[in-house]
Design brief:
- By secondary structure, the protein is mainly beta.
- The chain has one domain (2-309): monomeric porin ompg (Porin, Beta Barrel), CATH 2.40.160.40.
- The protein has helices at 2-19, 27-35, 143-148; strands at 41-52, 68-80, 83-94, 97-98, 104-105, 108-111, 115-126, 129-138, 150-163, 169-181, 185-187, 204-206, 208-221, 226-239, 250-266, 269-280, 297-309.
- The strands form three sheets. A twelve-stranded antiparallel barrel has the order 1-2-3-7-8-9-10-13-14-15-16-17.
- Strand 7 and strand 8 (129-138) form a beta hairpin.
- 30% of the residues are buried.
């Protein structure tokens, strides 16, 4: 049981870093404080914390629930008014408590993949449509990336905005990515172990090849301090095949939808509280796809803070 809990803890913190929509989009407003100053260097902090509903068939525990988060500190250099390069140091954390599987987990923290981001705040206009974006390059500094043999991950981001007011807008977000891997498959040490001491599935896992996150987000401004933010879209992942391990190449698609309330208490700081639900569209063990299952819902707190200019 202890081994199973530790495995699920590692897997849970990894999913937090991968499953949240729009982790950086909200930074545009926060970073405007640093962009408006004469200094070239600045620092900022990003955090998204979440707690998942209990897995199907598991009762809500009486003990304290465990929650986790993905965070990073960012060192930013402003090239000009429209471009910025950033070095970001990400890490995940998990608090002590009961996880969605009903297992007790201890507190822990883990380094994730360090990355460099090049942000482009003005890629031009298509009539009233505003284009912006970013390119990110990741180093394999997390334990999972080291175990899987990842060499690097390259991710592009394109934001297609139509603004109604200063804060209200509808945005089409497109985030393609590719992975450069040493191997097409690897021994996955985070594979869950059952109560009988055996792996619940084969511990040999295929490595990721491509990814694509694309969704629509509406920012409905209530006033200068509050905005509603519904969003819906798809998160897709392609995996390598491995002849030697009898693994076929595959493609997984998740439908993700959520709603958030953005709060802007002051310039240089905003946070969003909300929830999101994920549905895997691929059939699982012959079962039909089931939408809006409670166990696939998580509750999140997303925070962006401009720290200071250097």
């Amino acid at each position: 049981m202890q081994m199973k809990a530790q495995v699920l803890a590692v897997l849970g913190t990894f999913l937090i870093s991968c499953g949240a929509f729009a982790q950086d989009r909200e930074q545009a407003m926060v970073m405007s404080l640093g962009d408006s100053s004469s200094g070239k260097w600045s620092t900022s902090f990003f955090s998204i914390s979440s707690v998942d509903n209990m897995t199907f068939g598991r009762a809500e525990p009486k003990d304290q629930r465990s929650f986790g988060g993905y965070n990073y500190f960012s060192l930013n250099y402003k090239l000009d008014q429209d471009r910025k390069v950033s070095l970001r140091l990400p890490f995940t954390y998990q608090t002590e408590g009961v996880d969605p599987y009903g297992e007790y987990v201890s507190a822990r923290g883990d380094l994730q993949d360090v990355f460099v981001a090049m942000s482009f705040y003005d890629l031009g206009y298509l009539g009233p449509i505003d284009l912006s974006g970013a390119i990110k390059v990741y180093a394999p500094t997390s334990q999972m990336s080291k175990d899987s043999g990842m060499i690097t991950r390259i991710r592009g981001e394109l934001f297609v905005d139509y603004n109604f007011t200063r804060f209200s807008s509808i945005t089409w977000v497109i985030k393609p990515g590719m992975f450069v891997q040493q191997n097409s498959a690897y021994f996955n040490e985070t594979t869950a172990i059952g109560d009988d001491g055996l792996y619940v599935k084969s511990p040999i896992s295929a490595t990721k090849q491509f990814e694509l996150e694309h969704y629509l987000e509406l920012v409905a401004d209530i006033n200068q301090y509050f905005a509603l933010k519904p969003r819906a879209g798809f998160d897709e992942t392609w995996y390598y095949g491995s002849v030697s391990n009898d693994i076929d190449s595959s493609h997984m698609t998740k439908f993700v939808a959520g709603l958030g309330l953005e709060v802007r208490p002051m310039r240089g700081w905003n946070f969003t509280v909300g929830f999101q639900n994920e549905t895997t569209l691929n059939s699982f063990k012959g079962k039909d796809v089931a939408y809006w299952q409670p166990e696939n819902t998580s509750f999140t707190l997303l925070t962006n803070v401009f720290l200071f200019n250097l």
